[in-house]
TrEMBL record:
Stretches of the chain forming a coiled coil according to its record: none
Official protein name in the record: Alpha/beta-tubulin-N-acetyltransferase 9
EC number(s) reported in the record: 2.3.1.308
Higher taxonomy: Eukaryota, Metazoa, Chordata, Craniata, Vertebrata
Family classification: Belongs to the acetyltransferase family. GNAT subfamily.
Catalytic activity: N-terminal L-methionyl-[tubulin] + acetyl-CoA = N-terminal N(alpha)-acetyl-L-methionyl-[tubulin] + CoA + H(+)
Task of the protein: N-acetyltransferase that mediates the acetylation of the N-terminal residues of alpha- and beta-tubulin.
Annotated N-acetyltransferase domain residues: 35-177
UniProt KW keywords: Acyltransferase, Transferase
An example Gene Ontology molecular-function term: tubulin N-terminal-methionine acetyltransferase activity
Organism superkingdom: Eukaryota
UniProt-listed InterPro entries: Acyl_CoA_acyltransferase, GNAT_dom, NAT9-like
Length: 208
């Protein structure tokens, strides 16, 4: 099962990626009430209970790897739920080719968009996928109207390979050649990998 990242923190300059835990669900659930986010992520609103079930499946399924994106400027220091800006996911759903990862990024906090948070979170996740999960090909499926996201993936060397008018989405792809791998590791050479258990504030410390 995809427990591989349950104690992993990936710390960048702008964002820090932490495992998605039950403590993050209420804030996540709040985000997903937004019609705009539902449209951009092609998802249905869930009840809080369903969102908790979803979080457990994210944690336990072998074909998903997910991190919550925190603002590095706020965490550690502030409570995680106050530092959350979005999430980033890898789906390993291609049974014929386990080296393909479909990547998905959501910066849910409007004040954090357009500040490079999504780009860094995506790069950190890609580097993790390449180093830890054996990914050699990335795909991203993005709604046609989401120009900011399409543009960002193109800056990260993804190429448009398909367009579905039925789903109104564009598929972009990146094959990680040696050269691309080198570039990716250079882009993320500031990333620090840490233990989540060690960085988390003990309960109660923030309340005193």
């Amino acid at each position: 099962a995809m427990k591989i990242n349950q104690d992993t923190v990936l710390r960048g300059k702008k964002v820090t990626l932490v495992p998605y835990t039950a403590a993050h669900v209420p804030r996540y659930h709040e985000w997903m009430q937004s019609e705009e986010l539902q449209r951009l992520t092609a998802s249905e609103p869930l009840s809080l209970e369903q969102e908790h079930e979803m979080q457990r499946s994210w944690r336990d399924d072998a074909d998903k790897c997910t991190f919550i994106v925190l603002d590095s400027g706020r965490w550690p220091g502030q409570a995680e739920e106050n530092s959350m800006v979005g999430d980033v996911n890898l789906f390993l759903t291609n049974s014929e080719d386990p080296t393909v990862g479909e990547i998905e990024i959501m910066i849910a906090e409007p004040s954090c968009r357009g500040r490079g948070f999504g780009k860094e979170a995506t790069l950190l996740m890609m580097a993790y996928g390449v180093r830890k999960l054996g990914i050699t090909k990335f795909e991203a499926k993005i709604g046609q109207e989401n120009e900011a996201s399409i543009c960002m993936f193109k800056k990260l060397h993804f190429k448009e390979v398909a367009m579905s008018s039925i789903f109104q989405e564009v598929t972009l792809r990146l094959d990680v050649s040696d050269q691309e791998r080198q570039w990716l590791l250079e882009q993320t050479n500031h990333m620090e990998e840490k233990s989540y258990a060690e960085l988390k504030q003990p309960a109660g410390v923030l309340d005193t």
